[in-house]
Automatic annotation (TrEMBL):
Pfam families on file: QRPTase_C, QRPTase_N
Entry similarity comment: Belongs to the NadC/ModD family.
Gene Ontology biological process terms in this record: NAD+ biosynthetic process; quinolinate catabolic process
Purpose: Involved in the catabolism of quinolinic acid (QA).
Top EC category: transferase
Keyword Transferase: yes
Entry EC number(s): 2.4.2.19
Gene3D superfamilies, alphabetized: Aldolase class I, Quinolinate phosphoribosyl transferase, N-terminal domain
Protein name as catalogued: Probable nicotinate-nucleotide pyrophosphorylase [carboxylating]
Organism: Acetobacter nitrogenifigens DSM 23921 = NBRC 105050
Gene name of this polypeptide: nadC
InterPro entries per UniProt: Aldolase_TIM, NadC, NadC/ModD, Nicotinate_pribotase-like_C, Quinolinate_PRibosylTase_N_sf, Quinolinate_PRibosylTrfase_C, Quinolinate_PRibosylTrfase_N
């Protein structure tokens, strides 16, 4: 289940994109060519198969340029569409439509790409107990949107920042001196409601982490399926087992079959391919 993000969160991102695009002089091409009173109607269509995410960004892009431009949604975030499907119709000031088009489409394409990629893995592991989640590898300023798109695609979210959960990684362990020392330092400094996860590369590190009794989750990094099965058996329900590292729709089913609780995938947000949409003006 996903819920739409409030406009209060979305508007600053869309506004920043529009300000970047308008620069110091506005849309000099459209303003020179299109009369101020010209009216246009257009259809926003998908150019490929995929899962839609980010339609509110389109609505806000036009609203911030010209509030009189109307956007009629014919699809909802989370819908699967095919090439040629119309997801929205836009009507109003031709200048407003042309000027607001690109920012809205860029955000829609990016977020729909994330949702589509997420859905491909979520479907691949359907039937297993494993859940798909994203990571903190997001574009600065876009985290809320990108994590929303993951939810739209059927995934779930890992921590949102450095302040809402503890994740002890290899460099933390190197500085602390050992897995156990890092966990002990964390537990003596964070509140009782803060979850603690530790990244481990070997079963020996996992055993050390479990021996402390202070971890809520173990991030099993770049382990083979055989090693993951051993790790899950070692954990035996004492912590959440999370697999990570180089996971694709092809490898995800085998990883899910090892019994892990979570599969985390960084490329869903940091290097996914945008989904193609186009705005077609009525003749």
């Amino acid at each position: 289940m996903h819920y739409p993000l409030p406009d209060l969160l979305l508007e600053p991102i869309v506004r920043a994109g529009l300000l970047e695009d308008l620069g110091r002089a506005g849309d000099i091409t459209t303003d020179a060519i299109v009369p101020p009173d010209a009216i246009a109607a257009a259809a926003l269509r998908s150019r490929q198969d995929g899962v839609v995410a980010g339609l509110d960004m389109v609505r806000l892009s036009f609203k911030l340029i010209d509030p009189t431009v109307t956007v009629a949604m014919l699809a909802r975030d989370g819908d699967r569409v095919a090439p040629g499907d119309t997801v929205a119709r836009i009507e109003g000031s031709a200048r407003g439509v042309l000027t607001g088009e690109r920012v809205g489409l860029n955000l829609l394409s990016h977020l729909s790409g994330i949702a589509t990629a997420t859905a491909s893995i979520a479907q691949a592991i359907a039937g297993s107990k494993a859940k798909l989640c994203c990571t903190r590898k997001t574009t600065p300023g876009m985290r809320a949107l990108q994590k929303y798109a993951v939810r739209v695609g059927g995934g779930s979210n890992h921590r949102f920042g450095l302040d809402d959960a503890v994740l002890i990684k290899d460099n933390h362990i190197a500085i602390a001196g050992s897995v156990g020392a890092a966990i002990d330092r964390v537990r003596s400094n964070v509140g009782h409601l803060v979850k603690v996860e530790v990244e481990v590369d070997t079963l020996a590190q996992l055993a050390e982490a479990l021996a402390t009794g202070g971890v809520d989750a173990a991030l099993l990094d770049n382990m083979s399926c055989d090693t993951l099965r051993e790790a899950v058996n070692m954990i035996n329900g004492r912590a959440i087992a999370e697999a990570s590292g180089g996971i694709t729709p092809e490898t995800a089913p085998g990883i899910a079959a090892t019994g892990v609780d979570l599969i985390s995938v960084g490329w869903l947000t940091h290097s996914v391919r945008a989904m193609d949409f186009g705005l077609d003006f009525d003749a």
